Amino acid sequence: MPAAFRVLVIDDDPGVRDYLEALVSRQGYEVFAFAGGEEALRSLDETRPDLVTLDVVLPGMDGLEILSKLKTTLPEVPVIMLSGHGQASTIVEAMKLGASDFLRKPFEVEELELAFQKALEKRALKAEVEQLRGRARKESEKMLLGGDNGKMREVTEIIEQVADTDITVLVRGESGTGKELVARTLYQLSGRRERPFVKVNCAALPSELLESELFGFEKGAFTGAQRRKLGKFEYANHGTIFLDEISEMHPNLQAKLLQVLQDGEFSRLGGESDVRVDTRVIAATNRNLEEAVAEGSFREDLYYRLNVVTVQIPPLRDRKDGIPLLVDHFLREYNEQYKKEVKRLTPETLNVFMQYHWPGNVRELENMVKRMVVLENEQAVLEDIALREPAADAEAGNGDLLDLDGLDAELADGNGIDLKALSKRAAQLAEKRVIEKVLAQTRWNRKEAAERLQISYKALLYKMKENGLSERR
User: Fold this and answer.
1) How does residue 200 score in pLDDT terms, banded at 50, 70 and 90?
2) Per-residue confidence at 297, pLDDT binned at 50, 70, 90?
3) How far is 362 from 364, CA to CA, in rounded Å?
4) Model confidence over 14-67: pLDDT tens digits?
5) Which of 287, 305, 306 minimizes the C-alpha distance to 297?
6) What is the pLDDT of residue 85?
7) Which residues contact 411 (CB under 8 A, 6 or more apart)?
8) 364-371 long-range contacts, CB within 8 A, separation 24+
9) Are 249 and 257 in contact (CB under 8 A)?
10) Homologous superfamily of 6-107 in CATH?
């Protein structure tokens, strides 16, 4: 743990106090130890603790009174209660007052380490929730800037209808359309907004690591598992978990997720007992799950469990009437962030934006506006768009694979034609166009494109480089 974390130890037993001080220091924390509660309370402005260990039995003001005052002064700081008695009534009262954990003396080193880990991670999640609240209004406004578009009105209507329920929601749409924004809006409008919102990208980790990330593991579950680790589902208990790119989850792990959706139970890796959680699940995908079910890469029973309510976000090319509003929103946001004064874009730039096909959707538009604000230069971005457009024209049938007029001229002049070279060139151009088309269809997801082209991922990267496609996305 970084030394920046500050721990306040309050215990009247010199032996226990010295033991805790040494133990906590060895873990890299900065420690402040006091024998009495009153003295510790007076030190709060100086010590500014991130975490407190508090003995229940103290001379003068007892531990429960100290706990009450601590939670009034520093409500976000976790307090771990320590007691040699551990009476049920005391534990209940401590938890009511806001204690994050309760350990009985004598305790094992691992117990204290786990209590610290849980308390600090929960505090980090609370901080994230506070940050989300501050951003909620801005993000909701951004999502609703869809113009007078029927498809976006349908999206907002569904969100409003199901937000304050526990129903599972599947958010579908191309990459960059705003699926995470929809998930966060559902959370912010729900009765769980006071509880954690936990995001997990199912494509970011291999199957084995994703399982431990979602469900946690027990000490000794595998080599390197030196202590128990709680999974994201436990941290999202009574809150919301957002499973992004759900289609990338391995089928074996899908079975475990199905159990959580059906029963609200799972077991940690290496665990012998089930863990119960009350967590709302929001999932998102940019792939066709029906095709994945037909191919056998996605479980049909899980598909039906997830697909209770679907929010289908239209691509930006199908709601271009919202582009001027989005541009104004991003201009305000990034002018403020970068202290710039790009008040509006020229009519010529807006016209280009309205004609462009936006393969990267709202994310691509946002990044373009950000570049224009930072560089205070529209032309560089317009040139970038111009470079992207020919491929779209070719896909629409406006480009020829070869310059046939040039070939006719060469033949008319009596020049010879290297038919073998011509065939090779035609094949290369055809291959380039096919790769471009598949990459566009998969939103430049190289892994999925390689599968559709029936070549290895490494071969696709080589062919992209050979055809000058490596930098395009």
Assistant:
1) very high
2) very high
3) 5
4) 888 888 888 888 877 889 999 988 999 999 988 888 889 999 888 888 899 999
5) 287
6) 73
7) 417
8) 364/176, 364/316, 365/316, 365/323, 365/326, 365/327, 365/330, 366/326, 366/330, 369/327, 369/330, 369/331, 369/334, 369/345, 370/330, 370/334
9) yes
10) Response regulator (3.40.50.2300)
Q: Which residue has the higher pLDDT, 301 or 26?
A: 301
Say if residue 137's pLDDT is above 80: no
Return the CATH fold of 407-466.
Answer: Arc Repressor Mutant, subunit A (1.10.10)
CB 391 within 8 A of CB 399: no
What is the domain partition of the chain in residue ranges?
A: 6-107, 123-314, 317-395, 407-466
Asked if the domains at 6-107 and 123-314 fall in one CATH topology, the answer is yes
In order of 19, 255, 288, 298, the CA distances from 295 in angstroms are 59, 17, 11, 8
The Cα 129–Cα 142 span in angstroms is: 19
Topology of domain 317-395, CATH:
Helicase, Ruva Protein; domain 3 (1.10.8)
Rounded Cα–Cα distance for residues 82 and 84 (Å): 7
Query: What letter would DSSP give residue 315?
Result: P
Tally the residues of the chain. Answer: 473
Over residues 67-118, the pLDDT tens digits come to 999 988 888 888 999 987 767 788 888 888 888 888 888 888 888 888 888 8
* Cα three-residue angle 330-331-336, rounded to 5 degrees: 100
Instruction: Map 24-73 to HEC letters.
Output: HHHCCCEEEEECCHHHHHHCHHHHCCCEEEEECCCCCCCHHHHHHHHHHH
Reading the block at residue 414, the tokens are: 């009596």
Tokens of 136: 């909620």
**What would the two tokens of residue 173 be?**
């749409």
Asked if residue 453 lies in contact with residue 435, where contact means CB atoms within 8 angstroms, the answer is yes
- Tens digit of pLDDT for each residue in 350-402? 989 998 999 999 999 999 999 999 999 888 888 878 777 544 444 444 444 45
Residue 310: which residues within 8 A CB-CB, separation 6 or more?
169, 170, 171, 172
Q: For residues 449 and 472, is the Cβ–Cβ distance under 8 A?
A: no
Phi, then psi, of 309 in degrees rounded to 5: -130, 130
Tokens 């065939």 belong to residue: 423
Taking CA atoms, 224 is separated from 146, 177, 273, in Å, by 49, 39, 21
Domain 123-314, CATH? 3.40.50.300
- Tokens at 142, concatenated: 């951004």
